[in-house]
What we know:
Radius of gyration: 20 Å
Bound molecules: nicotinamide-adenine-dinucleotide, 3-isopropylmalic acid, manganese (II) ion
Distance between the termini: 36 Å
Strand content: 15-25%
CATH class of the largest domain: Alpha Beta
CATH topology of the largest domain: Isopropylmalate Dehydrogenase
Number of domains: 2
Oligomer: single chain
Largest sheet: 10 strands, mixed
Number of strands: 12
Structural class: alpha/beta
Strand order of the largest sheet: 2-1-3-12-11-4-5-10-8-9
Amino acid sequence: MDSNLGSKKRIAVIPGDGIGQEVIPQAVKVMEATGASVELSEFDWSADRYLADGVTVPQDGFAMLGRDFDAILIGAVGDPRVPNNIHGKEILLGMRFKMDLYANVRPVRLLDAALCPLKGIEPKDVDFVVIRENTEGVYGDVGGVFKQGTADEVAVQEDINTRKGVERIIRYAFEYCELHKKVDGSPRQRVLLCDKSNAMTHAGGLWQRVFKEVGNEYPQIKTQHMYVDALSMQMVRDPRGFDVIVTNNMFGDIITDLAAGLQGGLGMAASGNIHPGKTSMFEPVHGSAPPLAGKNQANPFGAILTAAMMLNHLGLAADAAKIEAAVLEAVRQKKSTPDIGGSLGTREAGEWVAQRVVRGSKP
Ligand code: NAD
Ligand code: IPM
Ligand code: MN
């Protein structure tokens, strides 16, 4: 009997739609190359499944994931054959809300200067993290439409901000700042609140008050504030000053695509959807990219780095480090897809990283 069996981490893998089905197999291959003590089970939740039998999430699907798995790895969901994307909403947003994965952690790291569209910016200059609230805001879909289809139509989309939700995400950001170091080993030192409290005064006021209160509990951590519009400008003008950014669901969504641009594009960005102590979910920041799908052109590194982030979360830091080192080397040697300067396909880039993981740093 395998003496490791009892301690293997159980991972649910959901490739999803479009390029999710291409990048996730590469992430799986690379994880397997590390020899990490994991046991993977694949689920077909996707547009294909929905179009075939009308099921988005099987009954008790989220309870099953929480009970039977240590983590979840998802590719992307979204398919033009499902115009309202109901399956995407039920799978992805359903998982975030129903499993209460309140902290969307999106690290922003530049692996090689050649990948950044900004002049004179080096890897040491881009190493920050966005902590995005993941269960509230305008994503709750509270509201409705009144007098639809008439000239008097009214659409209301409420922005939900609870004391509990705001406090726990802000606290998560301060804890993250305290516990995580930068890539160069130096400590993280600052938490920045990003909001739009000059216009959205009710919600903004709550965030501001809670940020001040929680910040007082961490006197060693510096606090900063920027409005989301000014922050966006600064991010593309000079990203060097950012450390830990905490923000709401919608602003977090937008600024992390912007930040992915600093890293070499959406194909490079990783994320985790975390509730400490509960089964958490990991996914690349990008979507299903329908025009790219099926062409073996999608960059698999965001998904591979997401797998590394998941292994780190599960306590398998040595395996995660092997993956990160291999991706770094692939980027430097341009053993990559064309979006970041290489000429390999999705499968070939994934294969190169997997081989590199097996060889380690040996030539
Ligand atoms: P997208 O991220 O799929 O694509 C945006 C742009 O980035 C496109 O130009 C695409 O070609 C490029 N891109 C994305 N990933 C790439 C990769 N790995 N390699 C190279 N280029 C890459 O965003 P979109 O076009 O706005 O959305 C497409 C679908 O995906 C929609 O249905 C959307 O709702 C869904 N979506 C899902 C998720 C998710 O499941 N986590 C995230 C974002 C969007
Ligand atoms: C993301 C995506 C999702 C979001 C969409 C697909 C609902 O853009 O994970 O960033 O807005 O959160
Ligand atoms: Mn997004």
